[in-house]
Amino acid sequence: MTFRAFGCLFFAALMTVVALSTGGLIYLLAAILLASALAWALLSSLVARITLTVGAEVLETAAVHGGIYTIKLWTSGAAILPVAPLLVSVRTPTEDELLRVSVPLIGKTPTLIRVKCPHVGTFQLGILHIIVEDVFGFFRFKTSNPNMLFERQVLPIIDSGSIEDFAFSPGESETEHIARAVSDTSSPSGTRDYIMGDELKKIHWKLSVKRQQLVTRTFDQEQRLNALVLLECTPNNLDIQDKLADLAASVCKKLIQQTAFTLMPLSGAVPEAVRLGKNDSDETAALAIARMNFTGTTEMPRVLAMETINMKKNGCVIIITSILTAAMVDTIILLRRHGPFVRVFLEGGAAQYAEHLRTLADYGVECALDSL
User: Fold this and answer.
1) What does the alpha-carbon distance between residue 145 and residue 130 come to, in Å, rounded to a whole number?
2) What string of H, E and C letters represents the secondary structure of the chain?
3) Residues 52 and 94 grouped into a single domain
């Protein structure tokens, strides 16, 4: 019962008292009309509430952030008098937002409700509740719809074309195999100018005499086409989270295009390890990132420390982060010295971490800033 209904009831009672006190029929008629309006309003809204049936579905199975999901809503019911359009509360991917939509009680066609998906993650969307109201606004009845909520993922945007190809370190992962490849001088693949520190047995003496300068033999070694992608999974600014997610998904697609075997551990509330081969779809990585939802509690420096052993076994390590501490720089430099190529994607902190970035560049670590 609304405040308007209480006002109507008060005036009906007042008109009745005045009619009984003065004997005026017009006051009695006014009281009867007001009471009748209340009665009919209550009856029509109750009938509509009792007979109301609702159906809903989400038409899309997935959407990228910045896109939309479409909710298809059916309603039907009966009313002995016209009722106001139904007031529908819609849960959107922005959890703090409720969208209110007016829908006719009896519609010939379903109503399409479009909701925006501003950020990457896993969300519930759908119908929270529906309010039935009479045309006078005297009575409101709310119906909850617990089966009208749907879980959907909002996926990152994949743009592998903006990312340069990744390099992979040569050689096999076992130390003795690397040593054997380095010491084998029987099958050189080419030559280059001598660099201080090159072993004497690698020098091409005949060509050096001919050119009057030292020339060093070079040797091809098999690349390790396996990559490790480390993504910062802790809560952050929503726009930064979207950029990190876009980068991670785009990196995975680029690695698939390079026929690399990829491992991407995600340290969200429910840890998950994404493994991708050359025949896998990039959507696998995108869905996993959306499920992770940036709910991790392990900070990025700790993630690097825990993955140190795994990092050394890969030909390429990609680090996607919004922070870059001194401890992270030391770990990355140590990793680079062990052989794997390393590329660091830093989002939103280029000026703040300029000194760290220069240090990494001096040690041969590739750094990409705000890449997408």
Assistant:
1) 8
2) CCHHHHHHHHHHHHHHHHHHHHCCHHHHHHHHHHHHHHHHHHHHHHHHHHHCEEEEEECCCCEECCEEEEEEEEEECCCCCCECCEEEEEECCCCCCEEEEEECCCCCCCEEEEEEECCCEEEEEEEEEEEEEECCCCCEEEEECHHHEEEEEEECCCCHHHCCCCCCCECCCCHHHHHHHHHCCCCCCEEEECCCCCCHHHECHHHHHHHCCCEEEECCCCECCEEEEEECCCCCCHHHHHHHHHHHHHHHHHHHHCCCEEEEEECCCCCEEEEECCCCCHHHHHHHHHHHCCCCCCCHHHHHHHCHHHHHCCCEEEEEECCCCHHHHHHHHHHHHCCCEEEEEECCCCCCCHHHHHHHHHCCCEEEECCC
3) yes
| Same-domain check for residues 198 and 234 | no
Structure tokens at 348: 């939103």
What is the token pair recorded at 338? 């062990």
pLDDT tens for each residue of 266-310 = 988 888 999 998 889 989 999 999 999 888 888 888 888 888 777
Kindly report, residue by residue over 303-350, the tens digit of the pLDDT.
888 887 777 778 899 999 999 999 999 999 888 887 788 999 998 777
pTM for the whole thing? 0.74
Q: Which residue has the tokens 């005499």?
A: 209
Q: 304 lies in a domain?
A: yes
Domain presence at residue 257: yes
Residue with tokens 């090159």: 198
* Range(s) of the domain holding residue 208: 185-218
